[in-house]
Amino acid sequence: MKKIVVAIVLLTQFVLQAQEKTGAQQFWENLQKQCGKSFEGEIKEGASNDTFRDKKLVMHIRSCDKNTIKIPFFVGEDKSRTWVLTFENDRIKLKHDHRHEDGTEDKVTQYGGTSPNSGSAGIQFFPADQETLNLIPNAATNVWWITIDETSFTYNLRRIGSDRLFTVKFDLTKTVATPAAPWGWKD
């Protein structure tokens, strides 16, 4: 009987600890479960003439530290893009790191935003920050969001007040071969 009581107490403590995690913490843990894996995606929303159409789209959750996750996003042979997520003070920040083939930074890089609240386990929103406004004035009304669940990851962009909408969805049930290092990285 004593073992059953101890087991119930331990289980209750575990459940309470799990419930105490914020949306941002749960989202972070859900994303970290995919570390090291690569997935193919497809455009779900976007301009019919965008440069991503008819190209192989692959994301590689390449680097996961306690507070930083880096996800290179490959568009065909273009290895210039990396989504950089940072977890700090129960908020998640999204930045876009753009590089040239030689590894140098593009002139348009490090734009993004920070979640205004802890969000939820399955979705985080990132309204454009001041750095984005200073770098790309037209992007002042950008809102990015990322969703994750057991089967999919989506990266989304909406420019409020315009028709601009972009969504790429990755199938988390099927890994693909890991691509070579993105521009500016070493294997």
UniProtKB/TrEMBL annotation:
Sorted alphabetically, the keyword list is: Signal
Q: Which residues form the signal peptide?
A: 1-18
- This chain's source organism reads Flavobacterium glaciei
- Name of the molecule in the record: Secreted protein
